[in-house]
Design a protein that fits this description.
about 210 residues; mainly alpha; Serine Threonine Protein Phosphatase 5, Tetratricopeptide repeat; elongated
Length: about 210
């Protein structure tokens, strides 16, 4: 094989690996409404897709409800969810933070806040928020899944990502979150064979 052909093949393979790594870092997107019910579709969208809109009538009604009742966490959370689904993460963050001021022990809202930070490429703030979520609920599955994602792709902390994903798999084997964590863990180890430890598979439930 000619040297030029070898060089082209090597460059192509490396480019494919890098593209795959980038896509993997952005694959999971979890809607706040599904935070306690498992995974949803990919976050990736065509570049020419029109911006997502919010229902301004519902937004105004919720803002009125929040203004009337400073302790209405539900209205504040719903506003965060609407802005999150529209990918307006700055506004989602504002309302999730407002909700947590009223109900600081809600790990679902805290984790949605962390995911919003992650979607704005703020990995340190995301990890800090996920740590808070786990202080409220040490076995919150969605938190552990996304903490691993941020560690792996936002901080390049591969061992840290593997550790939290293994903990998730051991905590809730067979759950959608554990299945997603296992896929990501396997991909991580395939891309980095030198990582310590071996990938573990989700345990079967009820002996099945």
């Amino acid at each position: 094989m000619k040297a030029e052909t070898i060089a082209v093949a090597t460059a192509t393979a490396f480019f494919g690996f890098v593209v795959g790594w980038i896509i993997g870092s952005q694959q999971v997107r979890v809607s706040p409404a599904a935070a306690t019910q498992g995974m949803t579709q990919s976050q990736a969208a065509p570049a020419d897709q029109a911006p997502k809109l919010v229902d301004e009538v519902e937004v105004q009604a919720l803002k009125n409800a929040a203004d009337r009742d400073p302790k209405n966490a539900t209205a504040r959370t719903r506003l965060g969810d609407l802005y999150f689904d529209a990918e307006r993460y700055d506004e989602a963050i504002t309302w999730y933070q407002e909700s947590l001021k009223v109900d600081p022990k809600n790990p679902n809202v805290s984790t949605d806040l962390g995911i919003s930070f992650r979607n704005l490429n703020q990995p340190d703030r995301a990890l800090k928020q996920f740590e808070y979520s786990l202080s409220v609920d040490p076995t919150h599955l969605m938190t552990m899944l996304h903490m691993g994602i941020v560690r792996a792709y936002g901080k390049q902390d591969l061992e840290g990502a593997a550790a939290i994903w293994k903990k998730l798999i051991d905590t809730a084997p067979g759950s959608p979150e554990a299945q997603e964590a296992q896929k990501r863990l396997d991909s991580l180890k395939a891309a980095h064979p030198g990582m310590g430890g071996a990938a573990t598979s989700p345990k079967k439930e009820n002996g099945g």
